[in-house]
Structure formats: structure tokens, C-alpha cells
Amino acid sequence: MQPPYESRPAGAADRAPRARVLVVDDDPTVAEIVAGYLDRAGYAVDRAGDGPTALGHALEHRPDLVVLDLMLPGMDGLEVCRRMRERGPVPVIMLTARGDEEDRVLGLEVGADDYVTKPFSPRELVLRVESVLRRSRPAATGDRLTAAGLTLDPDARRATKNGRELALTLREFDLLAFFLRHPGRACAREDLMREVWGWDFGDLSTVTVHVRRLRGKVEDDPARPRLIRTVWGVGYRFEPEGD
């Protein structure tokens, strides 16, 4: 990785108040470089070198986003992510030292919104942070989305099924909102990555894992989905009428 001496990335404007990012990594060099880039990009940055310290920081100063290393001493990043999510929704970008698909999927399964594999470009990480935060704060629309017993309020970032609150992550919420806005449309995973994640490239298993997690929360029987159907050779289709 490069030292944090480059100028602020284009489009990273000063924030008032500044968004707060918690960087959790037991490697002080990585943490310092990441924190330096984020600070220059206009963020308020807190740092922690282990899970318990990270949870303490998050309790004292609720972060707007967490950059979380998977391989932490004592309490790993997966457990830290789970415990943070128990206290309320917070966007998480997971860092992993290995490129194994199993590691990436585990991070996504516990609700990480994105992941970056080490070694990585700090500038790319800043852009990922920008993207996740931007999509976590959508412009007010005023239009509620309803279908198949589901109700989404984009302004309040609240979703219910048959009146029961759904605990959705940032990406799960956006994915469900996209499906509700495009009923009956066969959507390729590449299209979903571009429309929901805002990326023109990336690991398509990210989409697969999020669809599986979303089915677990909105389907009566996730093993036999009736709302979010698989379109073989294409992707997925939302069928508000079910069967």
C-alpha cells in the first residue's frame, strides 16, 4: 500500500458534521495508512486494534461506517460484526488477508456490505467507503413501496412484512427496494450489481449471497422461494403474486 500523502480524491467534499468511520485492524501500519487516507478524504476517524476495543468505540461514538479486519486477535471480525449489528444497523466494509471465496462469503453472510482483499489500494477503499455511505443515505423520495405484504419506506429506511419489522442490512434494503420497483423483470446479477451496488464490476457472489439472505427474511419458505425467483441462466425475478 502507498503512504497517505496524496491529495483528497475527487468528489470527496468536506462534511459538516463529518461522517465518522471506525477502522478496526490489529496491524498498526495498515490502520495508520487507512486512517490517513480517510482523514484526508474528510472523515472523522476512530481506530481500534481488537474486537473489544472496537465495540467500546462503537458504543461510545456510534460510527457511520466500520472498516473491519476479518482476522483479529481474540475476537474475529465476524463476531465483532455480529455484535455491532445487535446494537443497530451500521454499514460494514470487511478487510480480509486472503482471497478465499469462503472468507468473502462468511463476511457477507454476517451482514457486511462490502469487502476488500489485502493487499488493497487505500484510494480504492476510500471510494468504496464513499459508495457505501452515499447509498446508505438516499435522497428523500416520499414514495412507499408495497407488494405481497411487504412495505418499504425509503425515507425512514424501514421495511415490514405483514406489519412485522424486518431487520435488513443496507444492501438488503436497497436490493428489496429495487425488486419492488421492478416487479416481473428478469434481472441479471450484473444488472443488480450495477443498479444496487453502483459498481460496473465486482464479484457476483456478492449478489448471490445477498439474495439468499434477503430470501431468508421475506420468504415464508426460503428453501422454496415464491417472491424472489431464480431465472436460470439470467438471474432473479420478483413475483409479487407468488405462485
From TrEMBL:
Residues 142-240 form the OmpR/PhoB-type domain. Residues 20-133 form the Response regulatory domain. GO terms for molecular function: phosphorelay response regulator activity; transcription cis-regulatory region binding. One of its GO terms (cellular component) is protein-DNA complex. It comes from the Bacteria. PROSITE patterns: OMPR_PHOB, RESPONSE_REGULATORY. Keywords: DNA-binding, Phosphoprotein, Transcription, Transcription regulation, Two-component regulatory system. This is Response regulator transcription factor. It comes from Streptomyces misionensis.
